Amino acid sequence: MHKLLLNMIFFRFPFSKKIYTTDENSEEKPISFFSFIECETIKFNGEIKEISINDFLNLKISTDFIREELVYFKEENQNDYQEKLAEVIDFIKENQLSKLVISRRKLIDYKGRKINFTQTFLNLCETYPNAFVYFFIKDRKSWMGAFSEILGKFDSENSQFETMSLAGTLPINENWTHKEIEEQKPVTNFIENILENYSEKVQQSKTYDHLSGNIKHLRTDFKAEIKAEQLENLIAELHPTPAVCGIPKEICKNAIEKFESHPRKLYSGYIRVQFENKIQYFVNLRCAEFFRNAALIYVGGGITAESSPEKEWQETELKADSILKNLDVFE
Q1: How far apart (Å, rounded) are the C-alpha atoms in residues 33 and 282?
Q2: Pick from 190, 195, 139: nearest CA to 167
Q3: Residues whose CB falls within 8 Å of the CB of residue 282, separated by 6 or more in sequence, listed in order
Q4: Phi, psi torsion values for 191, nearest 5 degrees
């Protein structure tokens, strides 16, 4: 069993109570993880099957199942991050950018303790019922995430494609300001312009609040009828959206390489899941990379000319809490 668990994935769809895994006896590859710059792909073979909560808990997956340790890591502190964001804001103003997304990594040192991954996964499922939740261990890599942003959803029966514009972040009890509203607009415009190149029937919802645990975002939904053979090209154009990169896309991707000292790896990439008659693409946000002795939580925020470096730091701390507060730790 220990050997088997070194190569396994578990996940739950939004608004579902069912946990799924894969049967590796099949040659199918229904689940793929793509990194932010799409230079790394992790694929899982096998037919998707349901696993009961009791069977899942009985697996008792902990950090004992992870081989790799985190070494030589220096965390970016608040002062360093805010100084960098001041430079980012100057860059945004000089280049008249609508938005640039900058990320950081938060270190979680286990301090001799262990993480109970099965219970942590279930904690995330309970805290975020509208999220896609996943956990995997494969080829010395281990990641877990819980997020609700959909890059795309395609129904092969009616050729219906769905996506969303999700941006702007505040604690639930605060009111939206001009900064968050202006941050979400270019994401919405970006998606709308791309979809109109693929479909003559594009439907757009009103913008509304999207709740996610202790924070909220601004959200606009889209529906469009597209041809199945256009799906992968459409996803390639949508990724990375301004919500995880910025706009204009190429300038922002280059700026991210300049300002971020770390590789994003799977963070802000996407996950492709093909199940039954649907293909779903989830943006990999609110996630953590686990090692034998520590974890790195990946968080970021959309920076605009109006951003406050101190508030942006606080926003990343709030986002890190979405993982941190659900960790099940034992001696």
Answers
A1: 9
A2: 190
A3: 132, 147, 149, 150, 151, 270, 271, 273
A4: -65, -45
- 278 CB contacts (<8 Å, ≥6 apart)? 153, 154, 155, 156
Q: Report the chain's terminal Cα–Cα distance, integer Å.
A: 23
Its pTM stands at 0.94
What letter represents residue 212's amino acid?
S
Contact 327, 124 (CB under 8 A): no
Q: Annotate the chain with three-state secondary structure.
A: CCCHHHCEEEEECCCCCCEEEEECCCCCCCEEEECCCCCCEEEECCEEEEECHHHHHHCCCEHHHCCCCCCCCCCCCHHHHHHHHHHHHHHHHHHCCCEEEEEEEEEEECCCCEEEHHHHHHHHHHHCCCCEEEEEEECCEEEEEEECCEEEEEECCCCEEEEEEEEEEEECCCCCCHHHHHHHHHHHHHHHHHHCCCCCCEEECCCEEEEECCEEEEEEEEEEECCHHHHHHHHHHHCCCCCCCEECHHHHHHHHHHHCCCCCCCCCCEEEEEECCEEEEEECCCEEEECCCEEEEEEEEEECCCCCHHHHHHHHHHHHHHHHCCCCEEC
Q: Return the amino acid letter for 48.
A: I
Q: What is the largest CA-CA distance in the chain?
A: 58
pLDDT single digits (tens) 133-176:
999 999 889 999 999 899 999 999 999 999 999 988 999 999 99
| pLDDT tens sequence across 282-295 | 999 999 999 999 99
Contact 222, 195 (CB under 8 A): yes
